[in-house]
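Subject: design request, 146 residues
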């Protein structure tokens, strides 16, 4: 079951400047930064609140590390701004994706890939979701560090 907003993904050109903006403007100071080579991004997860299912809700700031990455392509076309939304599931993300695919929505990966902080992720095609790139996230249980 989808139980929360896991994160909102925001494309930016300068990750450090974006992190500083959210710290200075809103006081979001719980920040985790990592590089995801496969996705072609350096990203920051800014925790907003914990959620009742053991997960949490974040803002995700995404800076491209390659010109051919989805974020670089998005920035070239749209400039900085909201790139995707992500729902958190309390169960297996692949089962969730298959249930959604059965409703006629294209799932982008045959099998889950690695997301922030060791999560398992998949994406739904924006053209099947009202123009919104949508991600599904199975978080690592909190006791394991997320
Ligand atoms: C592209 N489109 C979007 C969009 N990206 N619409 C809404 N939101 C977006 N973010 C639209 C384009 O405007 C275009 O529409 C059409 O989709 C095809 O886009 P394209 O630019 O030609 O690009 P494609 O087809 O090569 O790729 C689009 C696709 C790709 C969504 C399949 O970006 C993708 O595989 N995304 C999933 C992975 C990802 O985004 N990774 C970065 C975040 P028109 O009407 O012009 O034809 S990594 C992440 O988020 C992590 C690590 C995590 O959460 O843990």
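Subject: RE: design request

Done. Sequence follows.
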């Amino acid at each position: 079951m989808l139980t929360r907003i896991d994160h909102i993904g925001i494309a930016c050109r300068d990750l450090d400047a974006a992190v500083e903006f959210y710290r200075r403007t809103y006081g979001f100071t719980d920040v985790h930064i990592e590089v995801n080579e496969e996705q072609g991004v350096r990203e920051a997860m800014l925790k907003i609140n914990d959620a009742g299912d053991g997960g949490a809700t974040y803002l995700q700031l995404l800076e491209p590390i390659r010109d051919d990455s989805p974020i670089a392509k998005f920035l070239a076309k749209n400039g900085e701004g909201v790139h995707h939304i992500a729902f958190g599931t309390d169960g297996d993300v692949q089962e969730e994706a298959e249930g959604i695919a059965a409703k006629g929505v294209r799932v982008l990966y045959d099998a889950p890939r690695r997301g922030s902080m060791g999560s398992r992720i998949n994406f739904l095609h924006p053209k099947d979701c009202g123009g919104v790139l949508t991600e599904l996230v199975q978080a690592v249980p909190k006791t394991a560090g997320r």
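The chain has a mean pLDDT of 96.
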